[in-house]
Automatic annotation (TrEMBL):
Family, as annotated: Belongs to the HrcA family.
Entry protein name: Heat-inducible transcription repressor HrcA
UniProt cross-references to SUPFAM superfamilies, sorted A to Z: GAF domain-like (SSF55781), Winged helix' DNA-binding domain (SSF46785)
Domain of life, per lineage: Bacteria
Length: 345
């Protein structure tokens, strides 16, 4: 859509976001100083209504954007600001990220997004299984069991007690640890050294067989669906514009979805995959009924392995959400990249 009709639709959505009230043709003439007559504007609005972009809540009222109308407006903003080129470059922070600080960092980023937009802010950390391992330690705790401790490139520490059929001598266990350390210098836990291929050359000793068994168990963990969410009072206040009862109902349904996490994280990551290293806007969603009346803006960080974003009603301030998501994702990525570089050094 282009020309006068597109311009009027953008103005209706913009006005509705600012007033939360149905928009009349006369209001558009006054607010945007059109040369078009109210009659001409009414005809265009009627056409937009027929095309599914606007709706009249009752006969004598102005018009309200539909999910289709909000989506058109959000995509227009993306094109206008040329945000589809990916997150802006942000200088790395001077201070390093210490071990154990990452949960607080992700939570603070979500809080910042909520404060900047007055909506629900969320941060999805990079999946553990797709991060490089900077160091690994394997220790025998009893016959048939070892403790494997991994430190990721971002400084996250994970320890797991793993069964091991082979009871290795100390020197064999040290050799197995060496095999694992060398492999994980160039691969992630999600990458198997075998796949459909035969055992790699040099991996036939007892230590190598044990290393492969440990690696398989480390890689077979459940997918990490970490999710940090802040700003519930902001979102509920926004939803209450329609009605307090509706806001409470939608809030409770959304809370269940976010507490489970998997479907929401999968949706956000799918949006990122569709757009590559670009900021994304999603208006309404049929696959997750609880998101049908909501919009989300998401921005990738750290090469797309993590996502930061904003979740709000269809009438949220898209311009503010786009700017906030892009800014916070850029800062978060720069800070984590600096911590990763520190680890490598």
């Amino acid at each position: 859509m282009q020309g006068r009709r597109a311009r009027l639709l953008i103005e209706v959505v913009d006005r509705y976001i600012r007033t939360r009230q149905p928009v009349s043709s006369r209001e558009l003439v006054t607010e945007y100083r059109h040369r078009f007559s109210p009659a001409t504007i009414r005809n265009e609005l009627l056409a937009l209504e027929g095309e599914g972009y606007l709706v009249k809540p009752y006969p004598s009222a102005g018009r309200v954007p539909t999910a289709q109308g909000f989506k058109f407006f959000a995509e227009w903003l993306l094109d206008l600001a040329k945000l589809g080129e990916g997150p802006s470059s942000v200088p790395a922070e001077r201070h390093e990220v210490e071990l154990g600080m990452l949960p607080d960092l992700f939570r603070s980023a979500a809080t910042l997004l909520a404060a900047m937009t007055r909506e629900l802010g969320f941060v999805i950390p990079p999946p553990r299984e797709h991060m490089r391992t900077s160091s690994l330690f394997v220790r025998r705790v009893r016959p048939g069991a070892v403790l494997a401790v991994t430190v990721s490139e971002l400084g996250t520490v994970e320890s797991r007690l793993l069964p091991l059929d082979l009871d290795l001598a100390p020197e064999e266990l040290a050799e197995a640890e060496g095999f694992l350390s060398r492999w994980l210098q160039d691969h992630t836990l999600a990458e198997s050294p075998l796949g459909a291929r035969p055992v790699p050359e040099g991996w036939h000793s007892r230590a190598a067989v044990a290393a492969l068994a440990i690696l398989r168990q480390l890689a077979e963990r459940e997918p990490d669906h970490g999710l940090y969410v802040e700003g519930w009072p902001h979102l509920l206040a926004e939803l209450a514009v329609r009605s307090p009862e509706w806001a409470l109902d939608r809030g409770q349904a959304l809370l269940r979805v976010l507490e489970e996490g998997t479907a929401f994280v999968d949706l956000v990551r799918a949006l990122g995959n569709d757009r590559g290293q670009e900021i994304a806007v999603h208006v309404g969603d049929g696959s997750i009924p609880e998101l049908a009346d909501l919009s989300l803006v998401s921005a990738p960080y750290l090469g797309g392995s993590g996502v930061a974003g904003v979740l709000g009603p269809l009438w949220m301030d898209y311009a503010r959400a786009l700017s906030a998501a892009r800014y916070v994702a850029g800062r978060l990525g720069a800070l984590l990249a600096a911590g990763s570089t520190k680890e490598e050094g």
